Amino acid sequence: MERAFLVGLDYRARPRPGGKAGGSLTRGTQAARESASLPGPSQASNVPEFSAEESLAELRALAISAGAQVAGEFLQRRDRPDPATLIGKGKLEELAGAAASASADLILFDHDLTASQQRNIEKVIDTRVIDRTQLILDIFARHARTREGQLQVELAQLEYMLPRLAGRGIEMSQLGGGIGTRGPGETQLETDRRRIYRRIRHVKEQIENVRRIRAQQRQRRESVPVATVALVGYTNAGKSTLFNALTQAAVLASPKMFATLDPTIRAVTLPSRRKALLSDTVGFIRNLPHTLVSSFRATLEEVQRASLILHVSDASSPLSAEQDAQVDRVLKELEVEGKPRLRVMNKMDLLPPKQRDSLRDDATTVHVSAAKGVGMTTLLDRIDQMLSEDAISRIRLRVPQKEGKTLAMLEARARIYSRAYKDGLVELEAEAPESVVRRVREWVVPSGKS
Questions:
Q1: Across the strands, what pairs with 342?
Q2: Has residue 292 been placed in a domain?
Q3: Which of 309, 362, 396, 414 sits a CA distance of 20 to 30 A from 424?
Q4: Integer Cα distance of 120 and 293 in angstroms
């Protein structure tokens, strides 16, 4: 197990001319404000901010998910990032001493590093340096199980690596064009770039093949009137636990971040006896690397084609609203922010009893505990109400008793409110999906007839 030393950063906003000094802004909050999907600085007060300490705590959880042992932590506060080393020369030397005394094998920065910053830091510290994006990519690579997931992670890693090839030493530099500088031809840098470009093209072709297969499977599913419900949410919000509770599946549910990478689809029976398909998807995180969003677009198409989105939130997290805002940003990037959405506040069992008792469901929010199985009936009822596929209608039927298969099908796929036997017929009053009504139309009693 590698020993990791964590480095957090807190950039404080300087006072504006004629204004008041801004509060402490973490990198996540600054990025969120720059996004068009979130309010500007004058409106952002209604969204809780990640403090530097909370941001570092999330990095700690990511490091543990990657299999590292946290050897120490270091928090640097400054007005703006240092262009060369991000944290400044003095703090870098201080970090080098702290990391050496903790016998750290690698340094994890809670920030994206440019290639030159990474090299400059490694020269002083003489220890491997990894930024936040590289750490997330490593976790994704560790958890990808299917061929599709592995291809998508590889594509993201290659696209991350490509701009970081330049300047890896004099042997990688471009040869000059003057007298005495003409070399044998292609440089090592150009060779590496060509290899990576070739591999990127190959991986993209394979992903496109997977995408076509998935589209064919989706087309077959869509030929039957069955709605798809997609679970989305911040990483570790409890999506897989909720998925298992609703479908009785055995998907890996782990407290580690990004435990679910490969999409899973299972059928669930709704209270109306309709079937729906529930899709578990990869968790989101603040500042999710753009290369990952692009690479996993084939997987996230399940969200784009879903009839209903279940946005799962961790009700026990003090940063639930900030996490939800980050999920909203990704949903906007996927162009699905206008889809019907139901907020599922999970982990209510972790709240204090007084706070738990004060929770009330409304038209857009349901409170549940997936781990304890609390609120599942209410959630299924609400999903049933929000889906329009295979519409439910109330019907009266007179079915001959000898039609055993039809009666068994109605028993399994319709809600039966009354049943009476008369003259060899079974008179039923029921609610049934349109797909069932079509199959029993010859026995439907027209309205107005007794």
A1: 310
A2: yes
A3: 414
A4: 29
Reported as half-sphere exposure (CB side, CA atoms, 13 A), residue 104 has a value of: 27
Provide the residue type at 227 as one letter.
A
Pairwise CA distance, residues 262 & 210, whole Å = 13
255 and 345 housed in the same domain: yes
Rounded to whole angstroms, how far apart are CA atoms 211 and 297? 9
pTM of the predicted model as reported, rounded to 2 decimal places = 0.73
Which residues in 357-376 are b (16+ Cβ under 10 Å) and which e?
Answer: eeeeeeeebbbbbbbeebbb
CA 28/CA 185 separation, integer angstroms: 44
| Separation CA 414–CA 273 (nearest Å) | 6
Q: What single letter denotes the amino acid at residue 424? A: G
Amino acid at 177: G
Q: Which CATH number do you get for residue 54?
A: 3.40.50.11060
Contact 336, 366 (CB under 8 A): no
DSSP 8-state class, residue 218? H
One domain, residues 284 and 346: yes
Three-state SS at 353: helix
